[in-house]
């Protein structure tokens, strides 16, 4: 059985890796008034943050239509028998449900929609592992089983400079955002039950970095091999420095850098930093 992997643009996997692993992407979009830009295709991350700084209103985001996803599946059905379609959390987007609906409509190929229950490079880790297994000829059912096992070990935490983006986008309750702003708290956030919720209230960015490292240490000290990613929103220099510091401390952890692109950046705002990882079995 010939299997291919599809994901959406919020996995933020480097373009060269997408090509190398033959991963297909359906884009989400950001909307500035009447102008719509597809992630990866119509606007770069830098262009997006530059545009946000000069815009009077925050952009809105939109998921791919069922028709767009279906077109991608139909295109792939000419060459593949099965599609593993991995998407950002169904708790913050309807993209996964669009994949489910499109998968039920396409003929000639079996679709396995997968809810990562997360986003960004944490989602990307699932995608890359699935693509690796697909290239090895592993059956799609076994790939999904492996993803479920990864999910048991996946951890991701992040902090943002301004909670109002999450509150206005409906991804965090207004009360939580107001309290954080009043107290100048830098809460650590994470995904729980597919939604973004506060993990711990922390007063300063410095303490937030330290707490994320403590959480990583718990996993790194119990496993021979861990894959991790530092994710940033226009904070590459800070992210790179932190990566170098962590690499010295944790030789058993393989670190990569990634970013919060336009769609996720719409909700988190500029300046966010995150750390995600999973234990490799």
TrEMBL record:
It comes from Piscibacillus halophilus. This is EDD domain protein, DegV family. The keyword RNA-binding does not apply. It comes from the Bacteria. InterPro entries: DegV, DegV_C, DegV_domain_contain. GO terms for molecular function: lipid binding. Pfam families: DegV. Keywords: Lipid-binding.
């Amino acid at each position: 059985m010939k299997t291919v992997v599809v994901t959406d643009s919020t996995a933020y996997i480097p373009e060269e890796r997408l090509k190398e692993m033959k991963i297909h992407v359906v884009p989400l979009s950001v909307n500035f008034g009447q102008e719509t830009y597809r992630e990866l295709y119509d606007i770069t991350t830098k262009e997006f943050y530059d545009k946000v700084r000069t815009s009077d209103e925050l952009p809105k985001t939109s998921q791919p239509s069922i028709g767009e996803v279906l077109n991608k599946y139909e295109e792939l059905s000419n060459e593949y028998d099965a599609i593993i379609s991995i998407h950002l959390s169904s708790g913050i987007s309807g993209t996964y449900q669009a994949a489910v609906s499109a998968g039920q409509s396409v003929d000639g190929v079996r679709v396995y929609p997968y809810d990562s229950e997360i986003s960004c490079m944490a989602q990307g880790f699932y995608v890359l592992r699935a693509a690796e297994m697909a290239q090895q000829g592993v059956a799609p059912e076994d790939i999904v089983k492996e993803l479920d096992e990864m999910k048991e070990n996946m951890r991701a935490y992040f902090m943002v400079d301004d909670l109002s983006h999450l509150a206005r986008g409906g991804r965090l309750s207004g009360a939580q955002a107001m309290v954080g702003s009043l107290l100048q708290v830098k809460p650590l956030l994470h995904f729980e039950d597919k939604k973004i919720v506060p993990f711990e209230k922390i007063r300063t960015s410095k303490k937030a970095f330290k707490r994320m490292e403590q959480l990583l240490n718990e996993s790194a000290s119990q496993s021979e091999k861990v894959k991790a990613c530092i994710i940033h929103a226009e904070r590459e220099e800070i992210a790179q420095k932190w990566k170098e510091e962590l690499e010295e401390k944790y030789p058993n952890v393989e670190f990569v850098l990634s970013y919060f692109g336009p769609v996720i950046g719409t909700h988190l705002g500029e300046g966010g930093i995150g750390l995600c990882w999973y234990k490799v079995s």
